[in-house]
Each structure stands twice: as structure tokens, then as C-alpha cells.
Amino acid sequence: MDSGIACYAHGVVLPTVTAKYSTAIVSPPSASPSFNSRVCLKSSSLFGESLRIVPKSSLRAAKSRSSSVVTRCAIGDSLEEFLTKSTSDKGLISLMMCMGEALRTIAFKVRTASCVGTACVNSFGDEQLAVDLLANKLLFEALTYSHYCKYACSEEILELQDMGGSAEGGFSVAFDPLDGSSVVNTNFTVGTIFGVWPGDKLTGVTGRDQVTAAMGIYGPRTTYVIALKDIPGTHEFFLLDEGKWLHVKDTTEIGEGKMFSPGNLRATFDNPEYDELINYYVKEKYTLRYTGGMVPDVNQKGIFTNVMSPSSKAKLRLLFEVAPLGFLIEKAGGYSSDGHQSVLDKVINGLDDRSQVAYGSKNEIIRFEETLYGSSRLKGVPVGAAA
């Protein structure tokens, strides 16, 4: 495409960008490396159905008519087509394409890398597996390669890393490279979470300031779920065998259901209100769906809770997990809460700030807030309205 962003039709080997993050992104053996800024995706098919691919000339013509949203995104678009239609910000397109390439490679490594031994211990004292470190390096490398990331921070490296991009017109990114890595050996689904903020700040900001947030989900299928600030809904991309991301699903509403994912159940021992809430789900015959991985548990769009107590403090980090997933959930038509407010309204004062959280439909968040604290800010608020 004209902006110089490559169409990754069959994978790409990114060069080593610094000695500090010296792990190259490597394509699966079945994918031959290619890098061509003028590659046009060929027609693809999913389950035998031919997909319409928009000609590049049409995209250029549409682009010239608008400086914001180029044209309507469609199911069947490639990731590059979707981003080109969604934003005229070439830097954001570059960053999201490079992150998509990193996610594709992480998915392959999760399937094939040895996760038996402990590689090291991070600055929080958490156990790290070898695949955690690999995912961490791949994401830092992708952000440097995008040329539009000023600062990045990982849950595994609690320091801002200068990625070489400009603060003006650039972005800062916080990510959890492999959420749920402790369950890799059980063959459960794991994932990557990241949030993107404009400029050079990751503190003194809120989750609502994000320009985009996304998660990569590595399970029976590999998917890339994206939310953009100025585009309604969340948008799911499916990784095809040939290495392409295919737009397969949009979500603009999270309906009421009876499925729950209760994190930090230890807190029910000395948090009677949380105990009452969990007992409600059980008595009302909610279906328990809890894996120990935040990405798959939130992605199934039931009610996800992770509550603190006097003896069991908040574990989830606002910058790396809570705010990006809150952005995705609220863009999908759901709600988030720390018990009193949307998690997107919480100011991120420090890189290690933590929070309790719930994600779900409006009525589930009302129940969460009322049970824990006696009232809810959402009572009387129309669905979809900011509270």
C-alpha cells in the first residue's frame, strides 16, 4: 500500500533491532519470508466461500475523500484493509500491523516452544517460563520495527523502554506478553493484552485515553481482537493457515447471560459481600467458566470478577491488563467496574497500580456494584450511555 506498510501475506522475518531485544520474529516453517510494500492480497476463501478483496485503487480513491474514516469496514477484509479503512493514521496502521505479526509468531511459539523449565524471575517475583520471555522480546521488537512507538512497558519489565519513535504523532504501549502463561502446560488458552496511548505518557493517563487496545488469543484458533477509539465495536480477526489475518466478527453488544468467571476466590474468606455474590451465581445456576487465564475468561463475555479482600489484595495491574481489557469490553457494548466507577476512568498513577475489576453486561455490573457496595452508578442509566 502507498503508506509503505507491508501486506504480510506469507510471513516476514523482522530484523534484529537492538542488542537488548535480540530475538528475530520468525515465521512458521510453512510460511516463506516475504516483505513487499506493494504486495496485494490475493483472493482467499474460508470454508469454501470466496472473499471479496477490495482493489488497492479503490482504497486509494476512498482515502482521498476522507481524512478520518476511509470507507466502511467489512467482514472478509484483511487486517491491512480493515486498518486502512478505519484510520488515516499511518503510524497507528504500522504499529497494529507489526503487533499482528508478533502475535502470529507468538502463536506459533506457544504451540512449539518448550515450557518445562523456569527461565528466570521478573521484577515482581513472578515465575517466568521461557515462552514468556520470547513473547516479551517479540513484542518489543515489533514496536521498534513499527517506527511509531515512543515508549513501551511490559508487565515483565517494569520500566519505560525508549523504542525510538517520535512522541509527536507517535504512541506509547503497555502490554502483558503472555497472560495465563502458568497454564500453558495444561494446554489451556492463553493470550496477549496491550493498550496504546497517544504520545509519550503511560502514567497520569486513564484507560479512556487509549487510542486502541487489543488482545491476541492462542487457543484452538488464533484470533486478534481490536478496538479503535473512533470506530464502534470490537473487531475479531482469525489467523489463516497461510499467515493472513481475516476479519470475521464485529461485536457491538454484550447481552445478558448466565455464565461467570470468578477470579481470586480466596477473597471470599474475608470479604462477605464477594462471598454473597459468588453464592448468588451458584444458586441461580450460572455456568462456571474459569480457566485461570484472564484473556479467555474475559473473551467469553459472561461476568468476570476479580475482587480483593483484607487478606487477598488486588492482583491485576491497571496499565497492562485492567484498562486495555476494559476498553475492549466497553467498545463491545459491555461495562466495567472497580466497584464504584468504570475502570477506564481510573487514573494510572504508577506502572504497578492494581485494581479489582468486573466486566460484563449492564445488569451484571449493577448486581456487582450493589452487592459489594450497596448501590450502583448504573441504575437508571440507559444501555450504551456513559456513566
Automatic annotation (TrEMBL):
One of its GO terms (biological process) is gluconeogenesis. GO terms for molecular function: fructose 1,6-bisphosphate 1-phosphatase activity; metal ion binding; sedoheptulose-bisphosphatase activity. Keywords: Calvin cycle, Carbohydrate metabolism, Chloroplast, Disulfide bond, Hydrolase, Magnesium, Metal-binding, Plastid, Transit peptide. Its cofactor is Mg(2+). One of its GO terms (cellular component) is chloroplast. InterPro entries: FBPase_C_dom, FBPase_class-1, FBPase_N, Fructose_bisphosphatase_AS, SBPase. Coiled coil: none annotated. Residues 70-249 form the Fructose-1-6-bisphosphatase class I N-terminal domain. Homodimer. This is Sedoheptulose-1,7-bisphosphatase, chloroplastic. It comes from Rubroshorea leprosula.
